[in-house]
Amino acid sequence: MSDTLEATKRELEEAGIKYTVESGKRHYKVRFTVRGRGCMVTCSRTSSDHRAALNARLQVRREIRKALSD
């Protein structure tokens, strides 16, 4: 598994959010629900740089924040 997927899963688990992971050819799709709103983030199979895991965590936080503000 990729570092980005691990970081994404860790962030969702810390927030207490259940998720599913779909495996594609080049990316993983992580789907989760926040207050009844479906959310999805993609994670690459191979990380491109040293900040990839941090960026993945940020993407999850943004999706959660967006779902909570709607």
UniProtKB/TrEMBL annotation:
| Source organism superkingdom | Viruses
- What is the name attached to this protein's record? Uncharacterized protein
